[in-house]
Amino acid sequence: MPKKIRDWLFILFIILFVIITFFVSVYAAGYSLNKRWPPRFDQIFQKTGMLIVDSEPSGASIFLNGERRRKSILLDIGRSDALTPQKIKNLPPGEYILMLEKDGYWPLEKKINIYPGQTTFAEDLILFKRSLPLNLSLCAPQTLELSPDNRRLILPEEGTAINLKTETKSDLGLQLSQGDIQWSKDGARILFGGKILNLDNGQSNDTLAMIGQEANNFYWDENGKKIYYQADGHINCILTDNNTISTVLSGSDYVAYTVRGNLIYTIERQNEQMYLRLYRADNHLLQNSINLPAGDYIFKQDKYHLNLYDRKQKALYLLNDYAQQPINKQLRPVTAWQWLNASTLMWYNEFEIYSFDLNSNRQELLIRVSEKLTGAVWNRSKNYIIYANNDEIKIINLNLDKRLPITLLKAEEISNLALDEKNQLLYFYAKIGQQAGIYKLQLQ
Fold first, then answer.
1. In what order do the strands lie in the sheet containing 152-155?
2. Which residues contact 31 (CB under 8 A, 6 or more apart)?
3. Does the pTM exceed 0.90?
4. Does the chain have fewer CB atoms within 10 Å around its N or its C terminus?
5. pLDDT along the chain (444 residues), means of 10
6. Which fold has domain 48-126?
């Protein structure tokens, strides 16, 4: 090869080396060519950003603005799909539509923004399974009584208990009405109809038989080893250790009552006026009394709070045990509610789902729907809501900017949604085909 050509090739290689080194250095520094048209001399290069994306479960394919992302392997000898979790570098600044896809799961779409010199995090993205419902029990429409640990389910009208872990059923021996059941804290025993039944071995304790057939409206104080009940216009108490019976309150028309700690709450009617009254459980002295509007009242309590509900006005009263004003907050109209923790309440009416923060006294509308709600549950830790109308179950991720619901199931007569202890299974009543009963649907 002539020397002149060798010299030209040498110069060409030097030029190519300088150019390639320049662009590699620019790329490594986090810059890329600005592809906007018309080009501007002062904006030929732009600072890029990085995206960190993760999902539950992992292994989802990543799409940005409809383009599947791929990763280089062995210096581009081969290329494969970029799967979550993944770091995507050198993205030009701007708005992107991020979409995740995985076989057997519903796709997820989220709007993200990439900023120059910054990292955008798109983590804790939840993909929900495409699954078919499985029938647990054929039965008529009824309220599901879930144990405090979400491990057992009772069908009151069927008189049936279902162990959700083993999916085995046991016969309780009689039908129950809604509100008859009192659970032990461990969820292994129930009080109903004057009996304490151990769900693990089926044994029952009939020590309450002595109180007579007129006894009703039982309350189980498991810590104090007491069982309260109403009979002959009185509120009585029986000590479960020695079966000693004593009268706690008398002399009024007790519409409803409950016990919480060292306080007895009552709803009393006197001369057509309704009262909420608080008594000490140890000496039965009156602590507080406030007027209530006419209504149909019941007490509901869980491990977090005690609530008073007016079924006539669909009003929910949040109660504060030892406050001078025991009614902390009133919400209406309320169809059903769920305390997620000590400060967060989810409640819904026919067409809206709300949250209420007890600490900040702040109420927020989560979603509004066009068809009457028949059930709703909220996984607060992962921030998604499952809700149902008569013929559809939908799920919506509140972490997404564009809250588009995913239809998980279409059926008939859907109602009474409940999550298991790990929030991975959804239980509900529905009619699918010719089979009506309790079903489960796997979410993750």
1. 145-146, 152-155, 160-163, 168-171
2. 45, 46, 47, 48
3. no
4. N
5. 67 70 57 53 65 89 88 55 85 87 90 85 87 90 83 84 85 66 81 77 70 79 81 87 87 92 92 92 90 94 91 94 82 93 93 94 93 92 91 90 86 92 90 92 90
6. Immunoglobulin-like (2.60.40)
